């Protein structure tokens, strides 16, 4: 017997099928091993069991339909290929721009001024088909653009927002550093005042979109005040270097970068006047945390939809997988999770719209939804058997994509502690003993 590698083996099998049976393009799993439809032909939505549309206004419903259509028709067919290559599909940026969600809740400056509910449901619909695309848009829109929208001068908003809203230019948002993750307010990058501007020195890590962003929103510590300030750095600034982070197991389409800032000059007109302390980032994070909470909702919907179709298509023991009681229980548990997640996400939006949402509310939402989503995608992965580890059927890819989302925008632990502090009045981010010693 000749032993061949799995890729050789698959190529052989495809060639055999191709020459003897099908005559269809090689390396299409549905052709090589005809057993179920791959996610490039996206499954119909079966996850909206409690008819969530009834809770949306007509504009939000229309936006939801539009985003779903574009994602299913234009993005689903290509996403696996780009995910596998860990490359960004630049040619889809105009398509994503045409969705009219760039700038989301910002009013004016060419931005759509969406309700937070509309923005959230759009984020979920993007994530339902591809989580990387939703991260790309959220980093651009709800972090980069929103910081300019909420903390920028009138002149900065007029200069930067219109082209960012159309996705003619792309933004990123740099807070995290190699040595500073959860403890973000301790960041070390410095901003030193010089004649007509500022000089930035330091490093940033994990920054989404940064390898190609035109506009980099960077947070740095003012060496005079010791407070955190915000700056707009342009991609061609001398002293700026960005290196792509390779070998990620999730959100592989998102281009995360390590940023080196060495003596980078930022003119006075590009310092964000509304960021004078770390607290000033909280109004941006309030919105972005709600948006990030909607990503796992969308991911879970897509996974449920894929499983629902797969279980009816694939047979074992002479019957569809959907006929087994154990599989039905898992499917129902996933469906229950999705309904509960949608309702928590929706309530968060309503609290925000009424000006009643607290940081604890947003953190509980993000933490709890990602926890339930982790259970949901694990069940989905299990239901697809071996095919559950392939990116082609969506579930394996979504399973991996959820992991970074569980961690970014505050890990599950940190978000739990934010809510814990709010409900008990006791902050427990630093172990008391160590914290006492570090003050000595
Ligand atoms: C794919 C991806 C994209 C990202 N995009 C961006 C971006 O665009 N811009 C940006 O600025 N950042 C970005 N980040 C960074 C992200 O916000 C951080 O990874 C996150 O805040 C966690 O920081 P860390 O990875 O350094 O983990 P650490 O802070 O080192 O934490 C490690 C573990 O310790 C736990 N832990 C830490 N402190 C405590 C505590 N006090 N109590 C209990 N447990 C604790 C954490 O919960 C975690 O489990 C991204 C990260 C990833 C993975």
UniProtKB/TrEMBL annotation:
Q: Give residue ranges for domain Acyl-CoA dehydrogenase/oxidase C-terminal.
A: 282-421
Question: What's this protein's family per the entry?
Answer: Belongs to the acyl-CoA dehydrogenase family.
What is the superkingdom listed in this entry's lineage? Answer: Eukaryota
Keywords of this protein's UniProt record, alphabetized? Answer: FAD, Flavoprotein, Oxidoreductase
Keyword Flavoprotein among record annotations: yes
User: Which cofactors is this protein said to need?
Assistant: FAD
Q: Which residues form the Acyl-CoA oxidase/dehydrogenase middle domain?
A: 172-264
Show the GO MF annotations.
acyl-CoA dehydrogenase activity; flavin adenine dinucleotide binding
InterPro entries according to UniProt = ACX4-like (IPR045008), Acyl-CoA_DH_CS (IPR006089), Acyl-CoA_Oxase/DH_mid-dom (IPR006091), Acyl-CoA_Oxase/DH_mid-dom_sf (IPR046373), AcylCo_DH-like_C (IPR036250), AcylCo_DH/oxidase_C (IPR009075), AcylCoA_DH/ox_N (IPR013786), AcylCoA_DH/ox_N_sf (IPR037069)
Kindly list the GO CC terms recorded for this protein. peroxisome
Pfam family of the protein (one): Acyl-CoA_dh_M
Every Acyl-CoA dehydrogenase/oxidase N-terminal domain range: 58-166
This chain's source organism reads Nelumbo nucifera (Sacred lotus)
The UniProt entry's GO biological process terms, in alphabetical order, are: fatty acid beta-oxidation
Q: Does the keyword Ligase apply?
A: no
Record-given protein name: Acyl-coenzyme A oxidase 4, peroxisomal-like
| Gene3D superfamilies named among the record's database cross-references | Acyl-CoA dehydrogenase/oxidase, N-terminal domain, Butyryl-CoA Dehydrogenase, subunit A, domain 2, Butyryl-CoA Dehydrogenase, subunit A, domain 3
């Amino acid at each position: 017997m000749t032993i061949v590698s799995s890729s050789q083996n698959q190529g052989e099998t495809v060639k055999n099928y191709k020459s003897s049976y099908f005559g269809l393009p090689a390396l299409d799993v549905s052709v090589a091993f005809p057993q179920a439809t791959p996610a490039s032909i996206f499954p119909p939505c079966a996850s909206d069991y409690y008819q969530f549309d009834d809770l949306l206004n007509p504009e939000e419903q229309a936006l939801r339909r539009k985003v779903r259509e574009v994602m299913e028709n234009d993005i689903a067919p290509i996403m696996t290929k780009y995910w596998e290559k860990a490359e960004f599909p630049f040619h889809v940026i105009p398509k994503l721009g045409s969705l009219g969600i760039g700038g989301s809740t910002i009013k004016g400056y060419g931005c759509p001024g969406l309700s937070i509910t509309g923005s959230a449901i759009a984020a979920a619909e993007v994530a339902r088909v591809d989580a990387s695309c939703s991260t790309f848009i959220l980093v651009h829109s709800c972090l980069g653009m929103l910081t300019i929208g909420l903390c920028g001068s009138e002149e900065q908003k007029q200069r930067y927002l219109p082209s960012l809203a159309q996705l003619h230019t792309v933004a990123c948002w740099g807070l995290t550093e190699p040595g500073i993750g959860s403890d973000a307010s301790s960041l070390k990058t410095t901003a030193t005042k010089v004649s007509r501007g500022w000089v930035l020195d330091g490093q940033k890590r994990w920054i989404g979109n940064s390898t190609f962003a035109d506009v980099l929103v960077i947070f740095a510590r003012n060496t005079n005040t010791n407070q955190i300030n915000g700056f707009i750095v342009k991609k061609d600034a001398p002293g700026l270097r960005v290196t792509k982070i390779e070998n990620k197991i999730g959100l592989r389409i998102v281009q995360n970068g390590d940023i080196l800032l060495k003596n980078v000059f930022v003119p006075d007109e590009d310092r964000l006047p509304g960021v004078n302390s770390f607290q000033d980032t909280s109004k941006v994070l309030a919105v972005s945390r709600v948006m990030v909470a909607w990503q796992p909702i969308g991911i879970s919907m897509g996974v449920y939809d894929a499983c629902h179709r797969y279980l009816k298509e694939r047979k074992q023991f002479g019957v569809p997988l959907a006929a087994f009681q154990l599989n039905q229980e898992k499917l129902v548990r996933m469906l229950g999770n999705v309904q509960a997640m949608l309702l928590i996400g929706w309530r968060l939006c309503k609290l925000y719209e009424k000006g009643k949402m607290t940081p604890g509310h947003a953190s509980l939402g993000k933490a709890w939804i990602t926890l339930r989503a982790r259970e949901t995608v694990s069940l989905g992965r299990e239901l697809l058997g071996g095919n559950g580890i392939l990116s082609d059927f969506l579930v394996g890819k979504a399973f991996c994509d959820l992991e970074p989302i569980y961690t970014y925008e505050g890990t599950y632990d940190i978000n739990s502690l934010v809510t814990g502090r709010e409900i008990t009045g006791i902050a427990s981010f630093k172990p008391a003993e160590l914290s006492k010693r570090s003050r000595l």
